[in-house]
Amino acid sequence: MAVQDFEVKTIFFYYLFPVIALLLLLRVLKYLKPRLLACGCNAIGKRIHAKCATEKEQLFRHLDRDLPHHKLQILEIGAGSGLNFKFYPEGSEITSLDPNQHHKKYIETNRDKLNPKVHLKQFVCGFAEDMSCFDNESFDVVVETFVLCSVRNTEKVLQEVKRVLKPGGKFFFMDHVAAEHSSSLRWFQNRLNPLWKAAADDCHINREIASTINKIGFSSVEVNQFNLNTFIVLIKPSIYGTSVK
Ligand SMILES: C[S@@+](CC[C@H](N)C(=O)[O-])C[C@H]1O[C@@H](n2cnc3c(N)ncnc32)[C@H](O)[C@@H]1O
């Protein structure tokens, strides 16, 4: 009997308990991950936005030029915590799309703080690769900042952006990108990309985003290069610009 007890205890402590503990840990991590990412995106996003404040001002300064001035329909993909709200013209109607639903509360808070004169029309939980929830030609403006580095399929996202834009509509973008081909920084970006991706929620540091935007068939594309003001050299090379459908 005592030997059987000993065997049951051994099986429990050495085999069952570690498996149960591991399964519980995985469940806790699955629960915490999107919440922590949303919280981190809000905190880190504020610092990143401060580091490219000048370029953001440049990018959005003529947001409503050549576009209707009344209730501009804006779609922001990968909206994160909604830090771009402050650049949207009064009266605009914003649709925020992000696969992480926990961003919604930060978006609402930041809208109230940064620009209460714009209207958050809807928050859609989804991926920009498939925006079938939106009709063709339904937005005057589409915006993305620091999202194309993380999406699964950049080309598909950009095709969807073009589809949902009205004719003459504008796409505003800002991203960190791959360094020049032959540079030593590019060599490091290529080598460290797998590690970076694993640590930074699938963010790629070596994407050639400008050339992909150029391939999509917008009627015009304007790209400006700049260095992000950060000590993290790997994400310094950056671009911002606009494309017109
Ligand atoms: C680095 S954050 C940038 C957030 C915000 N745009 C900003 O500039 O502060 C990247 C955002 O893209 C979102 N994202 C990741 N993959 C996406 C996808 N396939 N479609 C749309 N958004 C995505 C993430 O959930 C996250 O909110």
From TrEMBL:
<dbReference type="GO" id="GO:0008757">
    <property type="term" value="F:S-adenosylmethionine-dependent methyltransferase activity"/>
</dbReference>
<protein>
    <recommendedName>
        <fullName>Methyltransferase type 11 domain-containing protein</fullName>
    </recommendedName>
</protein>
<dbReference type="Pfam" id="PF08241">
    <property type="entry name" value="Methyltransf_11"/>
</dbReference>
<keyword id="KW-1133">Transmembrane helix</keyword>
<keyword id="KW-0812">Transmembrane</keyword>
<keyword id="KW-0472">Membrane</keyword>
<feature type="transmembrane region" description="Helical">
    <location>
        <begin position="12"/>
        <end position="29"/>
    </location>
</feature>
<feature type="domain" description="Methyltransferase type 11">
    <location>
        <begin position="75"/>
        <end position="173"/>
    </location>
</feature>
<dbReference type="InterPro" id="IPR052356">
    <property type="entry name" value="Thiol_S-MT"/>
</dbReference>
<dbReference type="InterPro" id="IPR029063">
    <property type="entry name" value="SAM-dependent_MTases_sf"/>
</dbReference>
<dbReference type="InterPro" id="IPR013216">
    <property type="entry name" value="Methyltransf_11"/>
</dbReference>
